[in-house]
Design goal:
By secondary structure, the chain is of the alpha/beta class. It is built from 14 helices and 16 strands. The longest helix has 18 residues. The protein binds pyridoxal-5'-phosphate (PLP).
Length: 452
C-alpha cells in the first residue's frame, strides 16, 4: 500500500464527518492511515502506535481485535449474516433481548432495534409521541431537551439537540421543542455551589411544565454526562428529582444512554445511579463493544400496551424499521459482549480503574489553565480555561484542543479534545499502568501547548 497515494485518494473520493474539507489542505490535518488495532492500541501504516483514548468515538470497550468477538463474527457469518426482520427471527436477537431485559430486572420489558444512536433516539421520540396520541393526547407533541445536549445527527435528534455549532443552521427544518437549562455544575446556570447544590437548575424544567405540560410528550436527557456538549457532568440526584417531576406532570422520561450505557459509568445504565426507571432507554455505543453498528430503544409495558390491539386500520402499529433492523451479525456480537462482561464481573473489574483515573487526574490540578476536573465512572475530563478565577474559556479560534491533539499524537495517544476539554474515554481493558502512561502523555501534551 502506497501511503501517499492512499491519502490522496481519501481526499479525492471521501467527504468526512464534522470536517471542513478545505482544512485538509493543511498537512497536519491529513487523516492517519490505521492498519491494525490490538487492545487499547491503534497502529498506523508507518508502525506508530497510539493509545485509543477516545475508544474510537466512545464505542470500543473490550479493546481492538478481541479474539472472542472476532470468532463470534466469523461463526455467525457462517450461519446467517442477515435476514429480514419482518416475519422472521433468529437466535442471537432472542437471546440478547432476553438477557438485557433480565439484566434490568424486567423494569423495562420490550426491546426495539435499530442500528445507530441517532436512530435509537428517533425511535424513542416517535414512540413517545404516538403513545400520547394513542392515549388520547395528540396535543402532547413537544419535547423538553437540555441546552448543550446532543442526541445524534438525524433531523429528529437534531431537533432535541442544544449545541449551536452543530444544530442551529438546521433550525428551519426542525420541530419545535422547549429547552431547559444545562446542569453544568462548573458553570452553574443558577450560580449555585456544588457542595450545597439542590439541583436548583431543575426549576427551568418545572417552569416549562407548569406553563405547558398539557402540550408536552416527554423530556429527553443524557444521563449524568452531556458528553458531546463538553463532558458536562451532573449528579444522579438531578435525575432522581427529574423522574418525580415527569411523574407529577405526567410526561415521559427518555433516557439517552447511547454514550453512557453498557457500563461506561460503572453500571449497565447510568440511570441506575439515580435509582430510577425511565420510560424509554436508548442505547448504542458500547452495545457491541465497538465491533458492529447496533442500537436499542427499550421501553415499558405501559407504552408497549398502548400500541397493542386488534388493529384493522394500522393506526396503532408502530411504523418504523430499517433494512438492518436486528442485524444478526451485530446481535451475535452484542450477546457475546454481554457474556464477556458478565464473566469479567465488570462492575467490580472497573472499580480500581476508576479509582486510578481519579488519582492520576490530580496531576492536572495545579496547572494554571485547568479550570475543572470531572469524572463519572470511566469518563474523565479536564476543562481548560484562559483564566482560572474568571473561568474565561479559550476561544474556538485559539485552537487549543487541536494543538493538544497534535502533541498527543507525537507522544503516542489519540486525545482528540472536545471544545476545551481534554478527556479520557478509554476501552475498559486499559491497565492501571496504562492509565498512568496515558494521563502522563496528556499532561505533557498540555504543558507543551500551555506551559505551566
Ligand atoms: C453519539 C451519541 C448519539 C448518536 O449516536 P450515533 O451512533 O453517532 O448516531 C446519540 N446520543 C448520545 C448521547 C450520543 O453520545
Amino acid at each position: 500500500m502506497n501511503k501517499q497515494q492512499f491519502i490522496e485518494d481519501d481526499l479525492k473520493y471521501i467527504w468526512r464527518p464534522f470536517t471542513q474539507m478545505k482544512s485538509l489542505e493543511d498537512a497536519s490535518n491529513r487523516p492517519i492511515v490505521i492498519t491494525r488495532g490490538k487492545g487499547i492500541y491503534l497502529e498506523d501504516i508507518d508502525g506508530n502506535k497510539y493509545i485509543d483514548a477516545v475508544s474510537s468515538w466512545w464505542v470500543n470497550t473490550l479493546g481492538h481485535s478481541n479474539d472472542r468477538i472476532n470468532k463470534v463474527i466469523y461463526e455467525q457469518a457462517q450461519k446467517i449474516e442477515h435476514v429480514i426482520f419482518a416475519g422472521f427471527t433468529h437466535e442471537p436477537v432472542v437471546e440478547f433481548s432476553k438477557k438485557i431485559i433480565n439484566k434490568i430486572n424486567n423494569k423495562l420489558t420490550k426491546v426495539f432495534f435499530s442500528d445507530n444512536g441517532s436512530t435509537s433516539v428517533e425511535v424513542a421520540l416517535k414512540m413517545a409521541y404516538q403513545y400520547q396520541v394513542l392515549k388520547g393526547h395528540p396535543e402532547k407533541k413537544k419535547f423538553i431537551a437540555l441546552k448543550n445536549s446532543y442526541h445524534g445527527d438525524t433531523l429528529g435528534a437534531v431537533s432535541v439537540g442544544g449545541i449551536d455549532m452543530y444544530h442551529k443552521l438546521y433550525k428551519p427544518l426542525l420541530f419545535e421543542i422547549e429547552q431547559a437549562e444545562s446542569p453544568y455544575c462548573y458553570r452553574c446556570p443558577m450560580n449555585c455551589n456544588k457542595e450545597t447544590c439542590n439541583c436548583e437548575c431543575l426549576k427551568s424544567v418545572e417552569d416549562i411544565l407548569s406553563d405547558d405540560a398539557s402540550n408536552i410528550a416527554g423530556m429527553i436527557i443524557e444521563p449524568l454526562v452531556q458528553a458531546a456538549g463538553g463532558m458536562i457532568m451532573y449528579p444522579p440526584k438531578y435525575i432522581t428529582k427529574l423522574r418525580s417531576i415527569c411523574d407529577k406532570y405526567n410526561i415521559l422520561l427518555i433516557d439517552d444512554e447511547v454514550a453512557m450505557g453498557f457500563y461506561r459509568t460503572g453500571k449497565l445504565f447510568a440511570c441506575e445511579h439515580a435509582g430510577i426507571v425511565p420510560d424509554i432507554i436508548c442505547a448504542a455505543k458500547g452495545i457491541t463493544a465497538g465491533y458492529m453498528p447496533l442500537s436499542v430503544t427499550i421501553t415499558t409495558d405501559e407504552i408497549y400496551n398502548a400500541f397493542y390491539d386488534d388493529d384493522t386500520d394500522g393506526y396503532k402499529t408502530f411504523y418504523h424499521g430499517h433494512s438492518y433492523t436486528a442485524y444478526p451479525l451485530a446481535l451475535a456480537v452484542a450477546l457475546e459482549n454481554l457474556k464477556i462482561l458478565e464473566e469479567m464481573n465488570i462492575e467490580e473489574y472497573l472499580k480500581p480503574k476508576i479509582e486510578r483515573f481519579s488519582k492520576e487526574l490530580e496531576k492536572f490540578r495545579n496547572h494554571k489553565n485547568v479550570g475543572d476536573i470531572r469524572q463519572t465512572g470511566m469518563i474523565c475530563a479536564v476543562e481548560l480555561v484562559k483564566n482560572k478565577v474568571t473561568k474565561e474559556p479559550f476561544a474556538y479560534e485559539d485552537g487549543i484542543g487541536k494543538k493538544i491533539y497534535l502533541e498527543g499524537l507525537k507522544l503516542g495517544a489519540i486525545l482528540r479534545p472536545m471544545w476545551n476539554c481534554i478527556y479520557f474515554i478509554t476501552p475498559y481493558i486499559i491497565t492501571e499502568e496504562e492509565i498512568k502512561k496515558l494521563t502522563d502523555i496528556a499532561y505533557e501534551a498540555l504543558n507543551r501547548v500551555l506551559p505551566n
